[in-house]
Design brief:
By secondary structure, the chain is an all-alpha fold. The protein has a domain at 46-127. The protein is 96% helix and 0% strand. It contains three helices and no strands. The longest helix has 131 residues, at 27-157. It is elongated. The relative contact order is 0.02. Belongs to the BLOC1S5 family.
C-alpha cells in the first residue's frame, strides 16, 4: 500500500510539475523566441553591413580614380580658375569705372541743372523787380493823378477858403 501511495504521490507531483511547467515555466518558449530573434537580427544586420561595405567599396574606388587624375586636373583647373578670376577682376574694374563715370556724369548733370535753376531764379527775380518797379511807377502816377484831381476839386469848391 505504501508503494501505491508513493506511486500516487509521484503521479501527483509529476502532474503538478507538468501544470507548473505549462503555466509558469516558459523557458522553452522564450529560448526558442530568443533564438529566432537573434537569427533574424543577425541576418538583417549582416545584410545592412554588406550593403554598407559595398557602398564604402564603391566610394573608395571613385576616390582612388579621382586621386589618380588629380595632378592632371589640378593644372587644368588651376589655369581655368586663373582665367575665370582674371575675367571677374576685369569685369569688376569695368563696373567700377562705369560707376565712377556715372557718378561724375550725374554730378555734372546736377551741377548744370543747378546753374540753370539759379539763372532761372535770377531771371524771375529780375522780372519781378521790373514788374514791381512798373507797379510802383503806376501807383506813383495814379497817386499824382488823384492828388491833382483832388487839388482841382478842392480849388473848384474853394474848400481852402472856408477853413
Amino acid at each position: 500500500m505504501q508503494t501505491q501511495i508513493v506511486a500516487k504521490t509521484n503521479e501527483a507531483f509529476k502532474a503538478a510539475e507538468e501544470i507548473y511547467n505549462r503555466l509558469l515555466n516558459h523557458r522553452h518558449f522564450t529560448s526558442g523566441e530568443l533564438r529566432y530573434f537573434v537569427r533574424e537580427f543577425e541576418e538583417r544586420r549582416n545584410d545592412k553591413e554588406v550593403d554598407e561595405l559595398n557602398n564604402s567599396l564603391e566610394t573608395t574606388k571613385k576616390i582612388n580614380e579621382s586621386i589618380e587624375t588629380f595632378p592632371h586636373r589640378e593644372k587644368s583647373e588651376l589655369s581655368r580658375l586663373n582665367d575665370v578670376f582674371g575675367s571677374l577682376i576685369e569685369t569688376g574694374n569695368k563696373i567700377i569705372a562705369f560707376e565712377k563715370d556715372g557718378i561724375e556724369s550725374r554730378k555734372q548733370t546736377m551741377e548744370d541743372k543747378l546753374l540753370i535753376r539759379i539763372a532761372e531764379v535770377e531771371r524771375i527775380s529780375s522780372e519781378n523787380q521790373v514788374k514791381f518797379q512798373e507797379i510802383d511807377e503806376y501807383f506813383a502816377i495814379k497817386e499824382a493823378e488823384m492828388k491833382k484831381f483832388y487839388d482841382e476839386l478842392e480849388s473848384n469848391w474853394n474848400l481852402n477858403s472856408l477853413t
